[in-house]
Structure formats: C-alpha cells, structure tokens
Amino acid sequence: MLDKSHKPNWTSFTEATPEDWAAVEKYEEAYNAALPDRILAAIRSLDEDWTPYPVNRYQHSLQAATRAWEDGAEDEIIVAALVHDTGDILSPYNHGELSAAMMKPYVSEKTYWILKHHCVFQGFYYNHHFGGDRNARDKYRDSPYWEDCRYFCEKYDQCAFDPAYPTKPLEFFEPILRKVLSRGWGHLELAETAED
Questions:
Q1: Core vs surface per residue 127-161: b (16+ CB within 10 A) or e
Q2: Which residue intervals of the chain are DSSP H helices?
Q3: Which has the higher per-residue pLDDT, 80 or 89?
Q4: Residue 192 confidence (pLDDT) above 90
Q5: Across all residues in the chain, what is the average pLDDT?
Q6: CA-CA distance, 60 to 47, in Å (whole number)?
Q7: Which long-range CB contacts under 8 A does 179-185 form with residues at least 24 apart?
Q8: Which of 83, 112, 116 is nearest to 185 (CA)?
Q9: What is the C-alpha to C-alpha distance for residues 182 and 76, in angstroms, rounded to an integer?
Q10: How far is it, in rounded angstroms, from Cα 149 to Cα 157?
Q11: Does 189 have pLDDT greater than 60?
Q12: Measured between alpha carbons, how far is 41 from 128 in angstroms, rounded to an integer?
C-alpha cells in the first residue's frame, strides 16, 4: 500500500533522502503492477474504424497471436505476436523498435530481437512495391535470430489479415500476457555497472 501522506519536498534527485527513494520505490511497484492493463488498453486502441487492410491492426494483432498459439509457440512469442504493432500508436515508422523496447525487460534476447527487427523482415513481402529492397533483411543473416524472425513474419505476421480466420479474443491472451510481464527484470539501468 502506498503511503500517500509522504509529500516530497525535494526538487532534484540530489536532494532526495533515502525515505524519499523508499516512497518512490513503493509508487513504482504499484504503477508497474498495472503495466499489463496499460498494454491491453494500447492493444485495444488499435481497433480503428477504417483501414485499407482486410482487417484492422487490433484484429491483425489478435490473429497473429492466435496463429502463434495454434503453432505451439512459447508464451513470450505469443505475446510478441500480440504486441508487435503496438508501437504504431506513437511511432509508426519504427514501431518495431518501440514495441521491442517496451518488452525488453520481460522477454528473452531472441524475442526482443524479433520484435525489434520484424519491420525490416516484413519488408520482404512489400518493399519492392514501394521501390525498396525486399531483401534488406539479409543484412542480418549473421544473427542467430535471423531464422526465428523470418519464421515469425512468415507464419504469424504477414499472413494475419484474413477476416474469416477463427481468431481468439483479447481475453484469451490476457493471462499469457500477464504471465510474461510478471517475470520482468526491473529497472535495466540497475543491472549496469562501470565495468560493463
């Protein structure tokens, strides 16, 4: 429970006391516990009224996650399929990097890499229609996750635009999302050291 009676009287980090930092820590624990709800709201916000695609980004995200689930993918890959386009809300031209950054404290290096690079891998299917290089993904061939990302895009992402596909609802994926987000590593900056 948060101690709402603690009112800070500092104006810079250098003035904050250990008691102030204890209050901040309690606040952040409560705030961070609500992260799954904020991500679920972000996914719901993709449910736009009009789209030039056969399904909107909300339906696409659910369908991608359904395809991953039906394929027997591990939980964090199912979640990656569910959240891969949430970065579109704030950063459409590099949404993969934003989605990856959001999930970094909760997923493996492989899943983070897939989220971060899925846009260039998706380009294999359409870059040439816009004058781009459809094989741009090949510059990452040396990555141990190249094939994982190619598979993710081929099997879960690029094909998840079928209006007739029996897609599971968001509520189906909520427990999986909460499970993945429950195993976070906390503030990544705390893992940094001067020797790194």
A1: beeeeeeeeebeeeeeeebbebbbebbebbbbebb
A2: 18-33, 35-44, 57-70, 75-83, 95-103, 109-122, 146-152, 170-181
A3: 80
A4: no
A5: 92
A6: 9
A7: 179/75, 180/75, 180/76, 180/79, 180/106, 180/107, 181/35, 181/36, 181/39, 181/106, 183/106, 184/32, 184/105, 184/106, 185/105, 185/106
A8: 112
A9: 11
A10: 10
A11: yes
A12: 34
Q: What is the Cα–Cα distance from 98 to 111, expressed in whole angstroms?
A: 13
In the structure encoding, which two tokens stand for residue 76, read together?
């964090």
DSSP-based three-state secondary structure for 121: helix
75-83 helix and 57-70 helix, angle to the nearest 10 degrees: 160
CA distances from 29 to 25, 26, 182 (A): 6, 5, 12
pLDDT computed for residue 22 by the predictor: 87
With beta carbons less than 8 A apart as the criterion, state whether 132 and 123 touch. Answer: yes
Of the candidates 82, 87, 90, 91, the one whose C-alpha atom is nearest the C-alpha of residue 60 is 82
SS3 content of the chain, % helix, strand, coil (to 5): 65, 0, 35
